[in-house]
Amino acid sequence: MMLKLVHLLGVLVCSGQAALQVSISLNKVELSVGESKFFICTAIGEPVRLDWFNPQGERILPSKRMALHTEASRSRLIIYNAIIEDAGIYRCQATDAGGHTEEASVVLEIYQRLTFQDIQSPQEFRHGETAEVVCDVISSPVPVVVWYYQDKEITEEHHSRFQVLANNNLQIHQVTKADEGVYRCEASVEARGEIDFVDIAVVVNVPPVLSVLQQSFNATADYQESVTFTCLTSGSPDPLVTWHRKGQQLEPSEQYILNRLEGGRSMLTVRNIRQGDGGTYSCRATNKAGSQERELFLKVFVQPHITLLKNVTAVEGSAAMISCVAEGEPLPDISWRRASDGQTFVDGDKSQDGRFEVRGRHGKSVLTISGVRLGDLGRFDCEALSRIGGHQKSMFLDIEYIPKFLTNHTIYYSWEGNPVNISCDVMSNPPATMLWRRERFTISAEGTANTRVHSAEGKSVLEVTPMSDRDFGRYNCTARNNIGVRYQEFILAQADVPSNPYSVRLSAVSQRLATVTFMKPDSHGGVPISYYLVQYKEVGLQDWRDVRSHSIQTTVVLTGLEPNTTYEVRVAAVNGKGQGEFSHTETFQTLPIREPSPPAVHGQRGMGKAYRLGLVKQDDGGMPIVEYIVKYKTDKEEQWMTKLVPGANDFAMLQPLQWNTRYEVEITARNVKGLSEPTFYQFFMPQKPDITAESLFSGLGLGAVVGLGLGALLLLLVLVDVSCFFLRHCGLLMCITRTLCSKKTATSGKGKEIEEGKAAYLKLPLKEENGKESLKPDTIEIKVHSDNSIHTKPDDSKA
Q1: What is the pTM of this model?
Q2: Which of 5, 76, 393, 406 is the 20 to 30 A CA-CA neighbour of 450?
Q3: CATH assignment of 21-111, given 3.10.310.30, 3.90.1150.30, 2.60.40.10, 3.40.1190.20?
């Protein structure tokens, strides 16, 4: 802004009085904006007032920015914080008593110093936009502004994207991250030689760039599975990454774990995935330059789960509808299975008889059963199946129906004084109540003098004790439930004794035994047969002997009969009422006494040179077998050896035999009547066993071998102890001897034996593991001689 110069010529007016003279301390003043200054006006003469006037000619009154301090001939004008508008000519006017005035003036020039106004640093811009770096500098006169970057002046010649605007701002076209840095805005006023600068940091913000490694994820619910979403971000400044679902920002929790790693990697982990966790998740990156968002999708597969399946009760003959509702992802297919026979039904199926039909959609299936039957009662399984898995639940179809009587047994027999139970068995659902009627009268639960009622679930028993003919006749059982009522009539008839059995036959007749068989009687008299009575006697005798059948078997064996004797036999049936008539009498004769049948034989090798011959008794001919005559010889010999075995024995032991030899045997049984036909038998004696240590131990287990080793060690210790006893007068045996006998007797006894040179013998049996003698039933002899030598030898007396 240019300063205006005003030239003021003072005019002195002479009025004939003493002239006023006015002067100001300064004639011309330069003042920068914001500075303060004062001026002093002095009057010579007799002024009565001093006034100041602003450049607009207005009398100056005291204010906050302009203050006046006036005395008799002196006045001070103070200007605080000067502004451009304060520039101009200020006049000081003095007035005397006569009204004459004199004035003086001062020229005030105001200039603006270089001033950077509200310079912001850093100044931020968005990548790719046109940036305008603001450098607001004021001065008067207008300053010259030059921009520098990296200590080099920015000119349009060398920087095509850079331009200094008329308002001194620096414009950068399509600013990039490379344009970031510190820029210097330098302003100067050549007229005053004034220069100043300000450094401005330019920051270029790059909008976020967001990418995902995988956009779609699969998981299965309710299996404690976890899924981790990953977003890769870049931008300047580093973007803030947030995760969102259904419009809500996700915060860290037990289910959601948020992680930020180096390299702009942000992760969201969804833990313990459930069905409701499926859907869209958003990764949002935000910074000063903008934001970007990418969507990720979580597909949650859910195991099929049946949510609705209830037991159903239907009435027989009506229709039943069974519903099964299941959920899952993907939606499962539903099928039905009848537990009674395993038959399955799927959507759209219809049974051959048309009674079973399945319809379903959207996770719901309905099994409809038309004309429900009792056979439909039971468990039905609903199975929901998808490629993820399956779920099965069961329900029970209960059928309600009118009471049904379970038996056609409606006629009962009894006799006077004999109680009988008339059972009314009912099947019903719900359970039926039952009562008994006799003619038109109801029999109470407490009963009467000769009737009693016993009740249980599905059963009512009427106990009747007939006392006269009037108690026989018809009784009625009534069963009722909320489905309906049914009746069944029972007849109590008088019982009789059974009729006679027939077709009596004799079989398997021998000297002492006979088997009687017969046919059941045509009528049991209304009461079950208890047993059969068989009577028999010798012809010519009067007394019958009784034999009862076992239960109601129609075969009876007669024992203790006499040989070659004629008998009569008859049969009668017995029930609760009594014994019926006898059958026709049959006659039979037992067989006469004869020689026994040939015995049966089986062989089994015994121990060593023995052979055990088993004897199986056959028909003894009516008399006990006295003895068995066993003859045997080798196949190369002519002479037989004979062995007699008592008839009560069931085996014969042949010994001693020869090794590696075939034997022929002839066995005959004898009773008082005579000899049976002979039975012939052959057997072979094997090679003599090779008794070696290898053969001895090869068949034994580890425990047996250890046992035998310990036995041998014990035997060795005994031998050593015996040797010490006789040779050195010490050892365990010596201690025992000294304890039992006096020392003197023991010493003299031993000395005498040694002097005489008699041998001491110790016979020890050699045992096998099972306790039987090994090799032979012999003993081993150990002889201690007077020359202190020990000899052992087996006892060959039985070789």
Answers
A1: 0.46
A2: 406
A3: 2.60.40.10
